[in-house]
Amino acid sequence: MFNKNIKLVIAGLIIAYAIYQFIEGYIGNGIMYILLSLIFIFFYFKNEFILLAFLKLRKQDFEGAKSWLNKIKNPSGALIKKQEGYYNYLHGVMVSQSNMSEAEKYFKKALDLGLSMDHDVAMAKLNLAGIAFSKRRVIEAKQLLNEAQKLDKRGILTEQIKMMKDGMKKSQGPKQHYGNRNMRRR
Questions:
Q1: What is the dihedral of CA 158, 160, 163, 165, to 10 degrees?
Q2: 144 CB neighbour count, 10 Å cutoff
Q3: pTM for the structure as a whole
Q4: What is the DSSP letter of 80?
Q5: Hey, which bits of 52-146 come out as E strands?
Q6: Three-state DSSP class for 163?
Q7: How far apart (Å, rounded) are the C-alpha atoms in residues 5 and 109?
Q8: CA torsion sign, 99 to 100 to 101 to 104?
Q9: Could you read off the pLDDT tens digit of each residue along the chain, which spans 186 residues?
Q10: Dihedral sign (CA 159, 163, 168, 172)
Q11: What's the rounded Cα separation, in Å, for the pair 99 and 112?
């Protein structure tokens, strides 16, 4: 795993060598080196281990995703800000299966660092709403749920949001009083 700045230095050196190849008259080699440098530039913006972790997570292989994420030793040095947000987002998704408090920290950190897609932000807020509701912070949960609903423009999370709202309504239903107030006085 290369540091994020080393990837740019390698890409710059490859581009410089490609220019040298163009000057020498080896146009095909120069084009090949330019394409090779684009791979390093791509991996500067999209970390290879996070991409592999997303692929494992898509197959519901949490252990495989965790092993890819554990290969990132120093997230703040190896990742740009958005990648670090996704790093924390993925950890939050995996930890939410077992430890809600730790998952809450990961999701909040992911939102602070930033996620590039609206449906990822909506998913993080939906998870935070579920955690807040399970910890009996109902007002915060409702606010996060409304924010998630606004961010879900494509309707990907509509079903989950509806289920969470229904669950909140059921658990906060009216308290039953047997008889009315006047009946108790008699």
A1: -70
A2: 24
A3: 0.76
A4: -
A5: none
A6: helix
A7: 23
A8: positive
A9: 567 888 899 999 999 999 999 999 999 999 999 999 999 999 888 888 889 998 988 898 888 888 888 888 888 877 888 888 899 999 888 888 888 888 889 889 998 988 888 888 888 888 888 888 888 888 888 888 888 888 878 877 778 888 888 887 777 655 555 555 555 554
A10: positive
A11: 20
Dihedral Cα 146, 148, 153, 159, nearest 10 deg: -90
Residue with tokens 């990742």: 79
Two structure tokens written together for 20: 């040298």
With beta carbons less than 8 A apart as the criterion, state whether 53 and 65 touch. Answer: yes
Place of tokens 């955690």: 131
Count of all residues that appear for the chain in the document: 186
